[in-house]
Amino acid sequence: MTEEFRIVSGRERLSRWESSPGIYRVFAGCCGSPLYKSRDALPQLLGLRLGSLDTDPGRMVEEHIFVSSKVPWVEIRDGLPQRRGGVPFGERG
Questions:
Q1: pLDDT by residue, tens only, the chain of 93 residues
Q2: Pair 45, 39: CB distance under 8 Å
Q3: Residue 8 and residue 53 in one domain
């Protein structure tokens, strides 16, 4: 939820791009690393790239999403729920 998300430093180093109408992608202005995305239609949610966090977010993985578009050499073996979705790997969407 957006009310629980805080940028504690470096906000001035972020850049924002409207990738589609009403969808914004925020990235590191110095290197282009993607950090999160937001949508006008769902302002309470952020699509956060967890690999960009400095600290443990305090949550565990609950499910895998868009598994139809994962690379074929990655095997998901943890038994968590998997939601298909996404463009199959190698195809254009």
A1: 577 788 888 999 999 999 999 999 999 999 989 999 999 999 898 888 888 888 888 888 899 988 998 899 999 999 999 999 878 877 775
A2: yes
A3: yes
29, 35, 27: which is closest to 53 by C-alpha?
Answer: 35
User: Do both 71 and 43 map to the same domain?
Assistant: no
Residues 75 and 53 in one domain: no
Tell me the pairing of strands 46-48 and 34-39: antiparallel
DSSP code at position 24: E
Residues 6+ apart with CB under 8 A from 11: none
Which range of residues forms the domain containing residue 68? Answer: 60-93
Query: pTM (2 decimals)?
Result: 0.66
The span from the CA of 48 to the CA of 34, in Å, is 9
